[in-house]
Structure formats: C-alpha cells, structure tokens
Write a structure and sequence with these properties.
By secondary structure, the protein is of the alpha+beta class. The chain has helices at residues 20-34, 38-56, 62-68, 76-91, 99-112, 116-139, 146-158, 163-186, 194-206, 211-217, 219-233, 241-254, 258-278, 377-391, 400-405, 409-419, 456-465, and strands at 299-313, 316-329, 332-336, 342-345, 349-355, 358-363, 369-373, 432-436, 451-455. The strands form 2 sheets. A 7-stranded antiparallel sheet has the order 4-3-2-1-7-6-5. A two-stranded antiparallel ribbon has the order 8-9.
C-alpha cells in the first residue's frame, strides 16, 4: 500500500490535530495504565499539604512541603491546582465571597505558584457554577426580586464579570431550560396574564438576555400556549373579537416564528369563515374564466373535486371516479371534467350527508353521488350545505346546539393536561380540537370523561367512521 506523502492514504491516516479534550483523555488513560496508584497518591498529597497550611498558616511554603512529603515534580502543579480548588469551594460554600476570603485566596494562589491565567480561569469556573445555582434558585418561582438580583451581581463581580456575561456563558445549556421552565410556570393554566409577561420580560432584560434569544428559548412552550388558546377559542366553533385579540397579542409578544404566526392566523380566519357560514352568510368570489354562468348568478366556491358514483349493473357493482373542477353558486353546483360534466340545482337535492372534506348528495336526477374536495374541502362542504339550505329556505338558526356543545374552561384545561397538548390518536401538536367522544347529537355530555383532544385529521377520520 502506498502511504507516502503524495498519496491520499486510507481514512484512518487523518493527520488533523487531536482536540485538547482528547489529549487530556489519552493522558489520563495512559497514566491509569502506567501509574495506577497516581490518583490515590495525589489525593493523599492534597490532604497532607492542606493540613500543613492549616498548621503553619502564613509560615507555610509549598516548595518545602513538596519536598517534605515527597511530591514528584510532575505532580506538584496538579496538587497545587486541587488545593486551590479546595479553598475556592470553602469560600463559596455560602454562595458569597468576602473581602477577607479574597485575600486568603490570593495568598494561597501565590504560595502555590499558580499563574494569573490559571487563577483567573479557576475563579471564573467556580463563580459561574455558583451563579448558575443562584440563578436557578432565583427563577424557581418565576420571578427574580431585587435581593436576588443583588446577589447575582455580587457573584458576577467577584470574578470581574457582569451578570449578562455569566448568563451568556451557560445560556445555551442550563439557561435556556431555566427560561422555558420560568415561562411554563406563567402559562401553566393555558393563559398568560399581561402583567405576568411584563414581569417576565423585565426580568430577562435585566439578566442581559437579548429578546430574540429569549423568544427562541421559550419557542416550544410558547407554541403550545398559542395552540391551547386557539383550541379554547374555537371549541364552540366560533372565535369572538376578544378571543381573537388575545391570540393576536400572544402572536405579537411571545412568538418569533413567522411560519407559525401565519398558520395560526389562517386557522383563525378559517374558523371565522366557518362561523359566518353557520349563520347563513356565504362568500362571494369572482367567477372563474370560461364559466358559463347565468345573469346575476353568484359564485361562492371554486376548486378541484372528485365525483364518485356507485352503480349496480347486471354485470356487478361499478364505481365511477372522475376528477374535475367544482363551482358552487347560489343556485347550483357545476362539475366540469374532460370525460363528464354535469350541473345540479340546489332545489333538486333531496338530502345530503357530510363526511369532513366529502359530501354524499342524494338527488332524483343527475348529480347524485359523492363529491370529494381537495384543499379547503371542509369549507367547500359547508358552503354547499348553506347554499342548499338558502335555496330551499330551510336554514334554521339556533343557539341551543352551541350551548349543548359548549365545554367549560375547567374541563378543557383538564383534558389539555391529560393529553399533554397532543392529539389522543397520532400525538400531533398542531391543528388541535376538543372533541366529544360520544357526539352531542347521540347523547354525549360535556364532562372531561367524554372530551378528548384530536388533531383535525384524526377528528375528520373519526367523523367519517361515525
């Protein structure tokens, strides 16, 4: 095999320099094999020198002690570092460090022969660890008061750092989880009070965490909070102006994900459209190019659809499936396809059964069968039902149904917590809806034992199977 300087050589001949962590691991591994008693010996030397410092105090000299206890030259820097760590740990035991303790640490560092850079690194390491514990404790109740801020500043100042600098030092690990936990405490009930959010924002600002970094850290619980608010708002099939304002306030303050904001606003818009449809209000849209409409005919919906019709023939059952375009107007439904085109007057519809994005039409003439709509199918089905009802003057408005379907806030909260803000069937965490396990129309009640959390897809699948 050619492994000369001009050859590429096999992949294991990588000449990249090993990392400092890898070198340290290799050093420890080799030491453990060649000198298995080293760790025990180091611990004994640290204990002996520590006791000697306590006995001699300012008369102590490290070089003399090292000779006295037989500490090898290569072990002396390790023993010195471990001794300084011991004194740091004792000084920080009460999560604060006094001027006298600082003087003692400076003397110990000088006596042990530690360099300024070594001392600075060790001081920062311990101060940062104490700072993390203090910050976690301060944020445990979702609020950092003046006294807690003062302590954080004192800890940071002890090693020449600012609060913001130490927060940045560990933010991407413990810091982000602390912010998520703090935010989750505020939003535990599925709501976020504006005063609570203001307090949270002010706390984060004082800690020196940039706003966008904070929003990114709380992204997951913030999304869940908005999903919860959205599911709560449309539980009765309607979104009031006040509910929409709450959702918009959340989007404008706690969310920085543009795609998520767009999704939520589309959901609100769709719900309000369906809300208007249930009140008999139909949308008016421009007529598609080439459509042969009658004078004054109003178009309510246009989109792709599939027509399915089952026929019983002497040769057996035959199912016709035709892809085309459907146009729903105020007087009829027009279906255009290459192989088949038809129109069906709303007045000739004898009955219909909706199945989510599909609707089964019963008619005495042409057009009877099942229509499956593509994008926006549920809305198309609702528009057609309203158009049929208006054409036949059979639409009846009633608040009783909405009252019977209304699920209380307490029940919704318990159900949300039971399912962890996820679909009971597929575990999705978007497009969530509160669903009656036994439909209201079949006698189901509004107790939490009869309510579950489903995503729209699973809810539609369930509707098709009822």
């Amino acid at each position: 095999m050619n492994v000369g300087p001009d050859s590429k050589g096999p992949s294991f001949m990588n000449t990249a320099k090993p990392t400092k962590g890898l070198l340290k691991w290799l050093e420890n591994a080799v030491s453990a094999v060649l000198d298995p008693d080293k760790e025990r010996r180091l611990q004994e030397h640290v204990a002996l020198v520590d006791a000697e410092i306590a006995r001699l105090r300012h008369n102590f000299g490290y070089s003399k002690a090292a000779v006295q206890f037989g500490i090898d030259v290569e072990d002396r820097p390790i023993v010195a570092e471990r001794l300084y760590r011991r004194f740091l740990e004792r000084s920080w035991i009460d999560q604060q460090i006094t001027a006298r303790e600082k003087e003692l640490l400076a003397w110990i560092a000088g006596t042990l022969g530690l360099s300024d850079s070594e001392v600075k690194a060790l001081d920062l390491e311990y101060a940062a660890a104490v700072f993390q514990r203090a910050l976690a404790n301060a944020m445990s109740d979702a609020h950092v008061d003046e006294g807690e801020f003062a302590r954080l500043h004192a800890i940071a100042g002890s090693c020449g750092q600012t609060v913001g600098a130490l927060v940045s030092r560990f933010f991407h690990a413990e810091g982000e989880s602390l912010l998520r936990s703090m935010f989750s405490n505020y939003a535990a009930d599925g709501q976020l009070d504006k005063d609570e959010w203001l307090s949270f924002e002010q706390t984060i600002e004082r800690l020196g965490v940039p706003r966008r970094q904070m929003l990114k850290a709380i992204e997951s619980p913030a999304h869940k909070l908005v999903e919860h608010a959205l599911a709560d708002a449309r539980v009765d099939g309607e979104i009031s102006d006040s509910e929409e304002k709450v959702i918009e306030w959340l989007l404008g303050n706690v969310i920085c994900d543009g795609a998520f904001i767009e999704y939520v606003r589309e959901e609100v818009s769709e719900t309000k459209d369906m809300q208007a449809l249930r009140k008999g209000v139909l949308p008016s849209i421009p007529a598609p190019t080439g459509a042969a409409l009658r004078a004054g005919e109003i178009v309510h919906w246009v989109g792709a659809a599939e027509f399915l019709r089952k026929r019983e023939l002497t040769s057996g059952t035959r199912i016709d499936e035709v892809d085309g375009e459907a146009i729903i107007t105020d007087t009829r439904m027009i279906f255009n396809a290459e192989k088949k085109s038809l129109e069906l007057s709303h007045r000739k519809v004898l009955g219909y059964i909706p199945f989510g994005n599909d609707i089964e039409i019963r008619s005495g003439g042409k057009g009877a069968g099942r229509y499956a709509f593509d994008a926006g199918g549920e809305r198309a089905v609702a528009i057609w039902q309203v158009a049929i009802g208006r054409a036949n003057q059979t639409i009846v408005m009633s608040d009783d149904k909405a009252t019977r379907r209304r699920i209380s806030r307490e029940v919704r909260q318990r159900v949300w917590q039971r399912y962890g803000g996820r679909c009971a069937e597929c575990k999705a965490d978007t497009y969530l809806e509160f669903d009656h396990i036994i439909p209201v129309a079949k006698g189901g009640g509004n107790s939490d034992t009869n309510v579950q959390l489903l995503c729209r897809k699973c809810n539609l699948t369930k509707s098709d199977n009822i």
